[in-house]
Structure formats: structure tokens, C-alpha cells
Amino acid sequence: MTEHANTKSNYSRRDALRLMAIGGAAGLIAPNLLGKPAFAQNPPANPTGRVVVGLSQEPTKFNPLMPHIEVDDAVHFSLFDALFRMDPKGILQPNLAVELPSQKNGGISEDGLKWHIRLRDDVRWHDGKPFTAEDVKFTLELITNPKFQAWRTAGHSLVRDIKVVSPTELTWRMEEAFAPYLSFLAETFMVPKHILEKEADPNAAAFNQAPVGTGAFKWAQRVAGDHIELVANADYAGEGPYLERLVFKYIPDMTVLYTQFKSGDIDLVDQAYITADHYAEASTLSDRVVKLEPGASVESIYLNLEKPQFKDPAVRQALYAAIDRKAILEALYYGVHKPTETFMPQNSYYYNPNLPAQEFNLERAGQILDEAGWVPGADGIRAKDGVRLSFANSTTSGNHLREQTQQFLQQTFAEIGVEMTISNLPAAVMWGDFWLKSQFESAISGVTNVIAGDPDVSNRLHSKAIVAKGGKGSNTGQYSNPEVDALLDKGARTFDREARRAIYLRVQEIVRQDLPFLPLFASTNVFGRKQGLEGFEANSNTRVASWHAAGWHWKA
Amino acid sequence: MRGFLLNRLSQSLILLLIVSVIGFLVLNLLPGGPLAQFGLDPSMTQDDLERLKEQLGLNRPLLIQYFDWAWRLLQGDWGHSFRDGAPVLAVIGRHVPATLLLMGTSTAIAIAIGTWIGIRGATHRYSLFDYMATVGAMVALSIPTFWFGLVGIYIFSLQLGWLPAGNMYTIGDGSVLNYLHHLIMPSIVLSLVHVAIWSRYMRSATLDAIGQDFVKTARAKGLSERRVIMKHVVGNALLPMITLAGVQLPSILTGALVTETVFTWPGMGRLFLDSLGYSDYPVVMGLLMFSAILVILGNLIADIAVAIVDPRIRLG
Description:
heterodimer, A: alpha+beta, D-Maltodextrin-Binding Protein, domain 2, Dipeptide-binding Protein, domain 1, Dipeptide-binding Protein, domain 3, 20 strands, globular, B: MetI-like fold, 12 helices, 0% strand, signal (chain A), SBP_5 (chain A), TAT_signal (chain A)
């Protein structure tokens, strides 16, 4: 458990006392750090200073339960709390709950259907009212209220019979065992019943423009189109905050976002971070900390497996061997991104680091095709049983880096007798039915496969998730492997972290072997912040850099 | 006058109707739509998207959606933004002051300097000043404003450190001086094109007036050259400028699309680009109607102003 000592924030007094009992010295050496994380470098006693966070899109949704985009998360994480929190290692930690319910501690029944949540008793809303189990019940019920324009309902729609046992305890029943719900709850921010229950229409509530949460920062004001200002919540139940003010500044142009980081107008760059082409220059700036941090999305060539060209695994293996990833990453992407062999984000607890590494080898690629019986025709293009090894590749038109990648691939594929044509479409067309209903032949796409940091990828890889075959989900490459299906079904019902890990490591092995898509790289973000901004931690299991501003402070 | 106004009003209503129909159609026929931004979000299932579509009323036939929108508009309900849920008029209201400040300043600079350059160019025709003004105007007109903006930021903010690299003010400092400091670069950059336009118009209008008989008469009466120019030439040359001002008036409130983005200015231009990017139909439609009304008003005011200044013109 020592590795969790630096996951802070969820330390109740009880935990702190327990820690002191274990290592009493801690209490002697640093009594003022009681309940504070071990790594915090002497944060100030009272919240002081201000941090301006730069965002390339404007946060506009302040009811965290309504449909929102990444940048909104940055504000939500500071204003609100969820029952749990996903730490940078991809492990769930309690937040508003005192413990993570599990089958071991009785929080979740053996069949996974009955849940029992125990809450902290020292949490207050920003208006001073106590946070209770009634608020949790209200939040979960609001999400499935048919009149409410809710964001994600997956998991929530399985919840039945929510019962408030006491102000700090509640239970519910699940329609089916669904382990990812724990992770989903880490992205389900609690909203106050006493404010929202009075609203006739929760979609148009005044709360949505001036939110009240339990988080480390309180709402101050919004200057539309410019910035959002939060102030320290002195009564915050968790660790921090150490900053008096937290400002989210909207800067619509990526170059200007970087320029204002360089000029010092903003202290930290959040979504969509520093562009790769500025990375080299940014690293040389004085008084700035610029670091590469793994993101959650994986850029791949998606193959529509129902097309006859791609049904033969040999073709997929040969194509994969014919991709000069090193050259693409270095020549086109400024060496920022990292190669990967799997769909799982590299900072996930469930990431499999032991997969065979791809090797660029045109000779080997040609050999694989030869052995599989794909022989070059008169035009030099290979064919087998009347199927020419020729296909179109599509992506968003105007995405220069992807367009250059395509040209690069076109050349190396041609060398092994494979013809790839380029047929790009505007974003709205490309990612509409053309993508969702598997009308493409092959496509380049950056996809975040996990939801809320949970390893369950049924939505992407389960055969039930193929829309073109009447399923529901985003398995647009139409991958179908009964063994993977069975593992995914099992993983979604397994609550034990270690048991789950084994399942998803195996899924990654099989998928690496089957190659339903050809991974190009794991996207990496260029994070930048001013020197002296301490307590900052990146967490690629969330969608933003500002997932835990409560711990930030300026060096004294 | 009354007949003229009634006539104008009916024309304007038809114009607004046409603008709204075309705007609505184009918006809705574009692929994508307000929910497209969630299309690649793994969190949202197809069912979630369908549900939201229904909740937002986007699954109804286009015609019904249009009439619903138009009927509400007639009753004064401009709808609510999909993005932040606020009423459209409130959304517009939040962005107007920033644009008014920026565009008002730059237009004032443009009119003052443009008029002066135009008059001086006309009275000192083919002088070095005239040539430089002409070349300068051509350069300003042919180089995109955002380029000037980026170069300005590079030189004056990053290299010299004299001016801020955008934003309307420093967060936490709302003093007048701070606003002015931030206003300098964007307003000058924006005024460059307008100075060029104004000076060219003013120059040719002044040249027209100088050639008129009444100018000869004024000179024959023995008036000083200064008096001839200021009283007789400029007064008449300003007439066509009123029309030009009428055409430019709406832009003072509708903003500059690209410049506001480059300088991180929270005005109307950027609101329009953002709303378009998110397919925030109610706000985009609101902005379209808002600018259409301003264009109509601008022209109306110009026509009336010209009639008041020039006794030869009668409305009706």
C-alpha cells in the first residue's frame, strides 16, 4: 500500500491517524503535514497566489452531468468531487466515499449486484450545507431522469432501488454485474440535491451557470468567451487547496496558446496542450517545465475486416511489417509520440508491456504475402482468388500530418505490391455514418479505447458492438473473435483488480496477434508549466491536466 | 418620409425572412450537427446520442423546426444556446461590449487617419506623400489582417515586450490603463485595412469635389486655400463617406472573425466562429439575425443621414 501514500487527497483524519500509528515518526517530524501528501513540497498554510490555466476550447458546461467536452472536465474536477478518483497509476481511490467498495470488504455482493457505499461525514457543499447520501441518490436518479439532458448513462441505467440507509450510507441494486461502473463513478460528479430539486427544468437551472460543488475551489465568475475564475474553498474536506485563485483562460488558437505560455500570460497549458511542432523550442525556454506525458488515445490504421482484402491475417501482418513507424514518428511527428503495440493507454494499470514489438521489414512483409499465396499480377499489384490487394485509406481531410503519413504508407506498401489509394473526407462526413457504420475500407484514426480509464473495451472490440451488423457500439473495424468476446464479457463482470488485469493482458495479446487495426503510435501530449508551480501531477487516466488543482501551489 | 420608412420596413422584413430561411437551411444541411462533437467520445453511446437528439428537438422535420424557431422569435424568444444553456440574447449581450470596444476604437482610428490621408493625398496629388499613401493602402489591403496580428505579436510582445500578446485585460487587473494597453495592438492592426479603404474613398471623393465649379467659384471669391478645402471641398466629399459608414456600422457590433481569434479577444467574431464550430444552431441563427438587422439599420441610418445633410436628396 505504500505506493498509494502519494495518492493523497482522500486522507481522512482516520487514515492519517492510522498512518501515524504505523510510522509514528511521521507525526514527530512533520506534524503540520498531518493529512497532507508526502510529496507536497511545503505548501503554504493558507491558500495564496493564482494559477492561470490555458485551454484551447472554452469550457461552457458547468453542470457536470450534462454533455460536455474535455475542457469542461478541467473546471468540473476543481469544483466537484466524485465518490472515487482515478489516480495517475490508473488505480481507483476513494474520494467522497470512505472506501472503495469491493467484494472483499462487502461493499459489493459476491454476485456483483448489491452495492453498499459509505460516505465521508465531513464534507460540505460550497454554500455550507452538509453533503449526504441524499445527494448521491439525487445525482444518480437525475442522470436517468428521461427529461434530463444527461451525458453518459451507461452503467447508471443499470442502477435500481437506491436506498439511503443513513446520511453517510446508501445501497443500490444493479440490474446486472457491471464492474466498469466503479470507474464511471469516478467521473460522475455529485451535485447538490437541495439546490437542484427546486428547479422545474434541470436543463435550464440557474445552477448550470453558477455551480455549487464540494470541490477544492468555489465558483467566482465567468467572463464568457474569455475565462472562468474559481476561488479557494477554505472548508475543503480533502487535501488543499493551496492556491487562492484558479483561472481557466480560453485561448482559441493553438499557436497563440503556446505564445501566451511563452510570454508568461498563462502558467500551465492544459487541453489541447503545446503542439508537437513547438516542442523542441518549448524545451529550451527558461523558467518553464516542458514534459512529454502519455495520452490515452492511440492512433491506428483501422481495417474494415469485412472487406475481402483484409480477411486474411497474413495481409494484416504484412501491412504491419511494411510500416516504417520510426521514420513516420520522427520525420512527421517531431519525435513526440511513442510507438505502441496495443489499444490500452500506456499509463493504465492494465497496459500490457510484453507484447511483441513491430519491426519494419519490407522483405519479411513480402515473404508473408508470398507464403499466403498473394502473387503479383501484371500491374504489379498482388492478388489472390480474384481479390486485388488494393484499398482506399480515409481520414479527415486537411489534417496535414495524417495526409503525409498516408503518402508515406502509400510508398512503402507499393514496394510490397499493395496499392493504397487516398480518399479523405471532411471531418463531419468522415466520422459520421462513413466511420460509425463501417463504410470505409481503411482509415487512420486516433481513438481513446477506454472509458473513464476503465479497461473494458467491449465498446470497441466486442462483436456485439458492430453497428453495421445491427449491434450497438463503436467496433467500426468489425473485429470479431469469440475468445475476445468471452474475455470481455468476463472482464466486465470481474471486480477484483488483479483478476481483471489478467483478463485484459490476455485480450491485448490476442488483439496484437489478430491485428484488427495497425497501431501507429500512442499519442503523447506536450505539457508545459511555469517553474515553481509545485504539486502538479499528470494523470492520463483523466482527460485533462487540471484533474487535481487542489494540490498545486507556488514554491515559496 | 413616412412612406419611405414603411416601404423600408416591409423590404426589411422580407429580407430578414430570406436570411433566416437560407441560414437555417444551410446550417441544418451541413453534415455534422450539434451532437457531432460527441461522436468520437467513447462515453456516449448511440442510444445516448439519439436520446439527446430527441431532447433537443433535432429529430423533428426541418420545416417544423424552422417554424418553431421563427414563431418563438416573433414572440421575442431567441432560444437557448446548446453550448452553455444561456438565452441567446444574453450570450450575444455578453460578447457585444468587447467587440464594441475593439471595433469602435479601430473604426475611430481608421476614420480619423483615413480621412486625413485621403484629403492630403487629394490636395497634394502625385506628391511623395500621395504615392506612399497609395502604396501603403495597397499593401494593407492585400496582406491578411491576421498576418499583421501575428507579426505584431512577434515583434512587440515576444521580442520587445512592449505590448501584451493578446487578451482584453490582465486577469485580476481591470484598470482603464490595462485595457488601453491591451487595446493598442489589436485596434491598430484592425484599423490598417480600414485606414486603407477610407483613405482611398476619401481621396477620390475629395478629387471629385475639387474639380467642381463651386470650388472654382470659392477660389474666385478669394477665399484662402485652407478655407476652400475645409469648408467647400471636404463638406461635399464627406457625403459618400456617410454611406460607407452606414455599411461599416454593423461590423462595429458583429466583430472581426480572425483578428479576435489571434488576439484572444472575447468578442462577437469569435462567438460566431465558436458557435459555428459547435453547430450551436440557436446562437448562430441569433447572430445571423442580429447582423442582418444591423445591416438594415446601418443602411437606413445612412440614407436618412445623407438626406439630412444633402438638401437635394428627398426620401420617399
